[in-house]
Design a protein that fits this description.
Elements (H helix, E strand, L loop, with lengths): L20 H18 L3 H7 L6 H7 L17 H14 L1 H21 L2 H12 L5 E4 L15 E5 L2 E12 L6 E8 L2 E8 L5 E5 L11 E11 L12 H35 L1 E2 L2 E2 L4 H29 L5 H26 L10 H13 L4 H13 L6
Parallel strand pairs: 1-4
Antiparallel strand pairs: 2-3, 3-7, 4-5, 6-7, 8-9
Helix pairs in contact: 1-4, 4-5, 4-7, 5-6, 5-7, 7-8, 7-9, 7-10, 8-9, 9-10, 9-11
Length: about 400
Amino acid sequence: MASHPADDPRDFLGIDPLLDDEERQIRDTVRSFVGDRVLPDIGEWFEAGHFPRELAKEMGALGLLGMHLEGYGCAGTNAVSYGLACLELEAGDSGFRSFVSVQGSLAMFPIHAYGSDEQRQEWLPRMAAGEAVGCFGLTEPDSGSDPSSMRTHARRDGSDWVLNGTKMWITNGGVADVAVVWARTDEGVRGFVVPTDTPGFSTNDVHRKLSLRASVTSELVLDDVRLPADAVLPGVASMRGPLSCLDEARFGILFGAVGAARACYEAALDYAVEREQFGRPIGSFQLTQRKLVEMMVAVNRAALVALHLGRRKDAHELTPAQVSFGKFDNVRQALEVAREARSVLGANGITLEYPVIRHMNNLESVYTYEGTNEIHTLVLGQALTGLPAFR
């Protein structure tokens, strides 16, 4: 009778062999970076509400910034490799995956996809190296799930553009060197490349957050910001521009959520086999084993969904509704895993000595941003019925 290899609690379904050598190398490189440069200090950074901007250049040196883009100093990896990098970064902390997502998918991607050659040459090499940080200005105080109702507007004044408005909940805003700002114009919704030292541009960081604390979240204020004619992104003049960027970022999120879930599950697994009560490890009790099994199944299922959608993206077959599927289910599964893991750790689960409460708090933001769970539900409902339910 043939012998079978022992089941691996950390890769129960044997997903690792589904990756090619380059994908595994990228994943392992990012995992090592997170282990060496993020995990030793992330508890202190989270508690202090601090993002170490100096690590941007290190992430740039690893090729993580705009890594799925071609040219201009970008690594040009496939979509699965980008997703795996997001997974490993979020296993460290959602703040680091958010930084990379915003830099590459929300700030660099629109310049790459819709910008002029001059805009690409000016910004993308520096952003890929982490020498310049970008942010993405779409959400407003009164316009979150309905970005088409934005009030920020830009008008022509001679050959210049003049921008006025406010953006809110902007990751990287307070540390950015350039903002890609979306505004209403007489010609439709346009994107503008706005250096943050432009007169009239200012930011106010959001404080007293209990989630994504190791990440900079800001308000952007545009008060008669005057820009030259060549500041506008020439390649798009509709909501298709910002929405395509959001699809890019959501793709990273659906992988990233797997990383947060995995970190919580593995912390609970390790704890369960070491922590003793009633004279034996708590992992020997049936209720604890049920929790561990549910977490393991959720993590493996989410990983398979992410990998499948990544393969579809590399084959140019991925639809926006399928991205919504991944964001919708993987994030809610990750949040449930985090909550279950917290219960396994008991009182220890609420401290920053373990990663679980930090991931759980972060995932509450991930559940909401880049399209709330409710919005993705309606996206999927429309895909099934052909009937929109947004208004």
